[in-house]
Amino acid sequence: xxxxxxxxxxxxxxxGKIVTESLESRHFEVHLVADGREVMAAFGQFRPDICVLDVxxxxxDGFSLGQEIRQQNPQVPIIFLTAKNQxxxxxxxxxxxxxxxxxxxxxxxxLIVRIQNLLRMTGTAAPEPSDGLIRLGRYRFAPLRQELHxxxxxxxxxxxxxxxxxILAARPNEVVQRKDILLQVWxxxxxxxxxxxxxxxxxxxxxxxxxxxxxxLTLKGVGYRLVCS
Length: 229
Hints:
With about 230 residues, the protein is of the alpha/beta class. Helix content is about 40%, strand content about 25%. The chain has helices at about 15-25, 40-45, 60-70, 85-95, 110-120, 160-170, 180-185, 190-205, and strands at about 5-10, 30-35, 50-55, 80, 100-105, 135, 140, 145-150, 155, 175, 215-220, 225. A hairpin with a 4-residue loop joins strand 7 (about 140) and strand 8 (about 145-150). Helix 6 (about 160-170) packs across helix 8.
């Protein structure tokens, strides 16, 4: 099956990497752009099936890009991503040609579901959610259903547990910075949120304890690494 092409525009390197890897793990083809002035050239060359645009970008904002994309292609779905939460910002997003609007911080599963819905509404074949299973040793992790499976048993994860495990699973055997996780999940690296992160990591370790080949290692003062085969 031909992959659905996503033009993803995001200038935060960590978030861009995590979202790109999450989409690619679900069989989307992703073209990531970090600079607003490069978006239209990428749009013309890549010819995406859907656009996911951050609003605050270097050199050009996402709303003006959405307007130009809409002039060139009235049908392509556009999702805006923004930390802004004022009503007028939401209105501006839709007036700029957006089909949907997601506030940061957002969960990967929310973005995937919204992309799937827009693609179905516009008649573009989208990968099925079952494609999103991530294998971690003997475990199967289903972010969209917020489930962690081990053979015939499964555990339902909380929203935060799902977010954290998905971030770590997107970069297996790599170090993920503690601060990056805090900013992605809580949008704030305060002491209180840092202690919450410790609690959630402890829970995830407990959930994964049945397979010794899967471990979440702590690099003190740096971050975490999900070791799995």
